[in-house]
Amino acid sequence: MRELLKKVPFLRRAKRAVKRVRKAYNRRFGPSKLRRRLAATPHKKLVIGSAGKYDSGWIPTDVDYFNLLKPADWARCLQPSSVEAILAEHVWEHLTEEEGHEAARRCFEYLRPGGYLRVAVPDGLHPSPTYLDWVKPGGASPMQIGNDHKVLYTYRTLRQLFERSGFGVELYEYFDEAGTFHHQNWDEKAGKIWRSERFDRRNAGGNLTFTSIILDAVKG
User: Fold this and answer.
1) What is the pLDDT of residue 144?
2) With 90 as the cut, is the pLDDT of residue 126 above it?
3) Domain that holds residue 106
4) What is the 3-state secondary structure (H, E, C) of 135-191?
5) How far apart are CA 122 and CA 98, in angstroms?
6) Predicted confidence band of residue 3 (pLDDT cuts 50, 70, 90)
């Protein structure tokens, strides 16, 4: 499919045009929609880069109007220490290491005491070479032209990133250096991770075809 798309300029141009329209719409109306949603609930629970996929009780955001790295995007919608929870599934790998630290510090600033950031990223210790080819920087999974990944984390490097930003960290799913998969139960109502052992359809039949490092970073 990737090769087919490369050979069909019309499809590529149409896709880019749709993307430009969506971005323009989000930039124009996204901030006001986000403020209205936040004002309507005492439970400020944000999904970062939701791409339209989010569960009841959560508030979706998009990078076009709520960029983790832009202080002004946070300040125009939120007060520091006001957010109950933040969910970011496969977001941090699209940031450089320094950007990842900056984003973690920003989340820490805006989370209330006891609030948490649930994060999932591709697992750099997954034992499958095919999986690693999908998720490594410069790689691509089926149907992708490129993944735009900047960093491939392990459970150690991801945990250290958030601990350096002041968080306490609870790991839920990851492979270790010996290729052993570690899992402890986590509450999907506290932030559902689709690319996980339990919810990714590619893992049917007990396979671990696609998993993520999953953790909660908790503000004390």
Assistant:
1) 78
2) yes
3) 2-218
4) HCCCCCCCCCCCCCCCCCCCHHHHHHHHHHCCCEEEEEEEECCCCCEEECCCCHHHC
5) 18
6) low
Please name the residues in contact with 28: beta carbons below 8 A apart, sequence gap of 6 or more.
none
Can you name the residues that pair with 85 across neighbouring β-strands?
Answer: 45, 116
Q: How many domains does the chain have?
A: 1
The contacts of residue 111 (CB under 8 Å, 6+ apart) are: 81, 83, 84, 85, 86, 117, 219
CATH number of the domain enclosing 120: 3.40.50
Give the model confidence (pLDDT) of 143-176 as tens digits.
Answer: 777 899 999 999 999 999 999 999 999 999 999 9
Q: Render pLDDT for 185-205 as a digit per residue (tens, 0 to 9).
A: 999 999 999 999 999 999 999
